[in-house]
Amino acid sequence: MNHAALETERGVSLWRDAWLRLRRNRLAVAGGVTLMLLCTLALLTPWIAPYDYRAQDLALGASPPSAAHWLGTDTLGRDLLTHVLWGGRISLAVGFVATGVALLIGVLYGTIAGYAGGRVDAVMMRLVDILYALPFMIFIILLMVIFGRNLILLFLAIGAVEWLTMARIVRGQVQALKQQEFIEAAVSLGLSRWTIIRRHLIPNTLGPVIVYTTLTIPSVMLLEAFLSFLGLGIQPPASSWGLLISYGAETMEEYPWLLIFPGAALSITLFSLNFLGDGLRDALDPRIAKD
Amino acid sequence: MALLEVEDLSVWFHTRNGVTRAVEGVSFTLDAGETLAIVGESGSGKSVCCYSLLGLVPMPPGRVESGSAYFAGRDLLRLPPPALRAVRGNEIATIFQDPMTCLNPFLTLGEQLMEPLRYHRKANRKTARRRALELLDEVGIVDAERRFDAYPHEFSGGMRQRVMIAMALIAEPRLLIADEPTTALDVTIQAQILRLIAELQARRNLAVLFVSHDLAVVADIADQILVMQDGRVVERGAPADLFRDPQHPYTRKLLAASRRGHKDAPPPPQREALIEVEGLRTWFSEPGGRTVKAVEDVSLTLYRHEILGVVGESGSGKSTLGRSILQLVRPTAGTVRLRGTELTRLGERQLRPLRRHLQMIFQDPYASLNPRMSVFDALAEPLLYHRLANRGDVTTAVLALMDDVGLPRSAIRKYPHEFSGGQRQRIAIGRAIATRPEVVIADEPVSALDVTIQAQILDLILALVARHDLSLIFISHDLAVVRYLCDRVLVLHRGKLVESGVTETLWQAPKENYTRELLAAAPSLD
């Protein structure tokens, strides 16, 4: 298959070069390592969490960090470390899966619309406009009512909303790129449409896409908190960083640690994401490379 | 005392990667009513030299290391910024290569013309308007009153350059710096603009500092020529002396590049027709419902082993013709046959396998290469896609291609931005011949390059045509290049075929008026 051959050759060029460049960027590597660490902790939570997440100690109530409870306990006497770990599972999963869904749909949809142009583009983008106009909350509540509350659906629902902006960004990019001579050159080489999209268009849209992705992940995490707050997402005793933060915010004057620790977890994630994202964007643009 | 006396000017750029000596010990004098031309290729320091006089070189990284530049008794290099600002645009005016990027697209020309009058001269609206109209008239804008409220995009390139000149003249400067003012223009327009500058100079006793990469352009207008290379003046003199008896090897190289000569060999016997175009018509409908007839009833035949030139000014439809032959733009009517196969009725899917026989070299090597593909990637793609190589031997094939187009093998992992314009064009040429095509259409492949680099690329194209048995359609607005390269020529004007014939015959005895005009306008050293 010539496609397979192209794929392998590509492996030794842009992506491999990008990987080499990324490895030289210390901030990006630090961000990547931190993210991997967080994900590992999230995966191992069932085995390493110090307490059962359902366990309460009403007699203890809210207590500051101590040897027994490293991050303290909440008003119901539940161990905060346990909850931050379990919450991280949900938040990271929502963040990555929903953004992944948005990325996949958005980039493909936007590229196809932008490249096809004309009537196809008009129809595809009007659909996006209609979905945009639909009040987001009503859309999600509708989904939840019809399909019942479930975590996968939550991922999909958020992803299904977030891809709209991604599609618009990518479409704009592709429309500008399409006019460039190197696309015309690719056509005159006799490459198929799909090859042109995959090898010439998408790699050149990655800069803004990566930046937008790193912005989407945190906003998705907060969206989940908002939905959960309304009773549409995660329900206690299960938890997420967004939920922990919103409860922590209510009691921040008496029990500041309830806000500080989940907040710190989310902040660290965001910082790592941004560093990794910026590193990726630079690594994928050979023009920025400094050898 | 001369109007401008530059003594021992040195401008260096201090960057992380070391010091670049952009200008090194340049001296010259320029009197009122005189024209001094600075000639050199990009990177020779000719522009930096001029901009440093105006304080327009970014500092840092730039720094004036030594020298003085006395303009009417004041040292421009030591004037405080406010005083320099008063000189700039007021006593010294500048026109640039690309008039479109220098005009504000959101303001009418009238507004932009009146601005300096109102700013520098504190004129009221009415006087400013009257003065601006006079100037538009002076630079040859017909119907100035009506064009006053038009926006820049409504003007052609030549008209815009005229407006830029009007803007430059509005404050009645004593020195005009012209940085490649005609490089982006067609030959006939170039001739008009050069004539205009000369007229204005005589009328206003202007001193002109003219920067160009092409000796032929400045041959008629310059009193003195400075030839610059790597920041230094390598030779200076009056044009007649310089052309008759160049001393420095670099000057000789520049002269050779501009004085191209012509093809001696008779065109090959015309037997096998590769491309046959009949009654080709390509129209575009514009948003306003207007139809642009880019190509109107053009027929041509390209024979095997032949280099066929297509000459015309911008807007003549020559690029659209090339793209229509390649089916990159679908023609409105007419037929295009490749070895007898009609292309216009084939769908994109049926065309794809045929495309490898029919390749294109684009004008702008900056835009025609994917910035995220290394040389290896760009050259391997067509080879692998058309199964002319497999994964095992593709590297060998790419290296062979690189040898073929004169790229160093060590460059295989580099990306387009790491190359100069000429080298990029080599990559693009390599990509075009990778599929072993029979026909290559080259659309102004050297127009974006310096003359010396142009010569190298043209020789490369000639060598490849011979080595790979290519037939070439060469689209260009540069007549000297076409004469050097092509066996036969077609002249296009406003989408229509004006004249065609064997190159030298057409040069010696053009039949049509338009062809004669075109030939007369081309700059030459003779």
Descriptive terms for the model:
heterodimer; A: mainly alpha; 11 helices; disordered N terminus; B: 526 residues; six-stranded mixed β-sheet; globular
Distance between the termini of chain B: 34 Å
Q: Name the quaternary structure.
A: heterodimer
Largest sheet properties of chain B = 6 strands, mixed
Quick check: average pLDDT of chain B? Answer: 86
Number of helices of chain A: 11
Number of strands of chain A: 0
Structural class of chain B: alpha/beta
What does this molecule look like?
The complex is a heterodimer of chains A (291) and B (526). Chain A is an all-alpha fold and 291 residues long. Chain A is 75% helix and 0% strand. Chain A has eleven helices and no strands. In chain A, helix 5 (118-133) runs antiparallel to helix 7 and helix 7 (151-178) packs across helix 9 (193-229). Chain A starts with a helix and ends in an 8-residue tail after the last helix. Chain B has 526 residues and is an alpha/beta fold. Chain B has a six-stranded mixed beta sheet with strand order 6-7-8-3-9-10, with helices on both faces. In chain B, strands 16-17-18-13-19-20 form a six-stranded mixed beta sheet, sandwiched between helices. A four-stranded antiparallel beta sheet of chain B has the order 2-1-4-5, covered by helices on one side. The two termini of chain B are 34 Å apart. The mean pLDDT of chain B is 86. The chains are: A mainly alpha (291), B alpha/beta (526). Chain A binds chain B through residues 2, 5-6, 8-10, 12-14, 17, 180-182, 184-193, 195, 199-200, 203-204, 284-287, 289, and chain B through 323, 326, 328, 348, 351-356, 358-360, 362-364, 367-374, 376-377, 380-382, 384-387, 390-391, 394, 413, 415, 417, 428, 431, 435.
Give the topology.
The complex is a heterodimer of chains A (291) and B (526).
Chain A: H1 2-11, H2 14-24, H3 26-48, H4 80-116, H5 118-133, H6 136-147, H7 151-178, H8 181-188, H9 193-229, H10 241-250, H11 257-283
Chain B: E1 4-15, E2 18-30, E3 35-39, H1 46-53, E4 62-71, E5 74-75, H2 81-87, E6 92-95, H3 99-102, H4 109-120, H5 125-138, H6 144-147, H7 157-169, E7 175-179, H8 187-204, E8 207-212, H9 215-218, E9 224-229, E10 232-237, H10 239-244, H11 249-258, E11 273-285, E12 291-303, E13 307-311, H12 318-325, E14 333-338, E15 341-342, H13 348-355, E16 358-361, H14 375-385, H15 394-404, H16 421-434, E17 439-443, H17 451-468, E18 471-476, H18 479-485, E19 488-493, E20 496-502, H19 503-508, H20 513-521
Parallel strand pairs in B: 3-8, 3-9, 6-7, 7-8, 13-18, 13-19, 16-17, 17-18
Antiparallel strand pairs in B: 1-2, 1-4, 4-5, 9-10, 11-12, 11-14, 14-15, 19-20
Helix pairs in contact in B: 4-5, 5-7, 7-8, 8-20, 11-17, 14-15, 14-16, 15-16, 16-17
